[in-house]
Amino acid sequence: MLDDIALLLARIALSVILIAHGWQKFNEWTLAGTASAFGDMGVPAPGLTSAIAAAAELVGGVLVLVGLLTPVVAVLNILVLMSAFVLVHVQAGVFVDNGGYELVLGLAAGLLLIAARGAGKFSIDALLPGSAYRNQHTDQPAEQELAASR
Q1: CB neighbourhood size of 35 (10 A)
Q2: Helix axes 2-23, 46-66, angle to 10 degrees
Q3: Which of helix, strand or coil describes residue 15?
Q4: Which residues contact 138 (CB under 8 A, 6 or more apart)?
Q5: From its phi and psi, is residue 95 left (phi > 0), alpha (psi between -120 and 50) or beta?
């Protein structure tokens, strides 16, 4: 139970950050402004990559929050974050106030744990038939559960 509460709290925290950054790209900066900034930073195909990053953060953040398709969405966001790490932040060093990578690295580490562990009991993923969570956390062996459902 403590694991499930920890996963829920981690999902909430990571989602708040992802949603805020995605919303910022769509609403405050606009996709055109984000693409321009990506271009200035040397990110390839800035029109496409800015839209991918914004959608991954905003939509992915909502999906991680509710725990739907969590491992897949977490991995997609990790790919976006590692791209930002390599293309933009690594040369600036660790600290975010210098444009460094501490935020992207911390987010990626948190999402990696969620991708590996799953969303936990308090998620939509846990409610889906055949979910890994249901199969791993049932009190009955899978064969008995299947037989009981017939």
Answers
A1: 22
A2: 150
A3: helix
A4: 145
A5: beta
Q: What is the pLDDT of residues 82-139, one digit of tens each?
A: 999 999 999 999 999 999 999 999 999 999 999 999 999 999 999 999 876 655 655 4
List of residues 6+ apart from 123 with CB closer than 8 A: 7, 8, 11, 66, 67, 68, 70, 133
Which residues have C-beta within 8 Å of that of residue 52, sequence separation ≥ 6?
80
Q: What is the pLDDT of residue 137?
A: 56
Phi-psi region of 131 (alpha: psi -120 to 50; beta: other; left: phi over 0): beta
